[in-house]
Amino acid sequence: MPHQFNSPRTGGPHSVHGKPIDRHTRCVHYGTVFDIVAIRFYCCELYYPCHLCHDECANHPAMQWPVSERTQKAILCGECAEELSVTEYLEASECPSCGSRFNEGCRLHSLFYFEPDSFEPDSFESDSTHSATSGRNTSDSDVDSHADSSDADSNDSDSNQAPLAELLPRNASSESK
Question: What is the tens place of the pLDDT at every residue in 3-23?
């Protein structure tokens, strides 16, 4: 059952699907004090606390918000229930309405939610990583090649990098959506 959040400005209720654990949109995957946003997924128009909640609870693959749609309201502040456009969220470190800080680490996962501004072929290692920016759901294998070697066991070669689930520990204090 989705959790309900009411916007103080619009008065409208917003349902947050997935696995939220509190009234601030934190979830079983990301639960730090700064993990207070829910993302309205482009593919289904439903709010989820994170990409993992969507993956586990939706019956379809996630799609990224196209650059051309960044003016659309797609981010819900878990503190005040204000809706922000994708552009407003990507440019902010805190909610412009209530001043609550957002987790800066969330930017590390932006490809799960938003198309990048531009595609730079040299920044990708193989054709399979290019698909991570193509608007379809990204998989662990797509993202592994983007992992910083400090996130994985740096004593091993790139072929032994940790899968995405190991790179993104659940509920660690430095983690984000």
Answer: 555 554 545 678 899 998 888
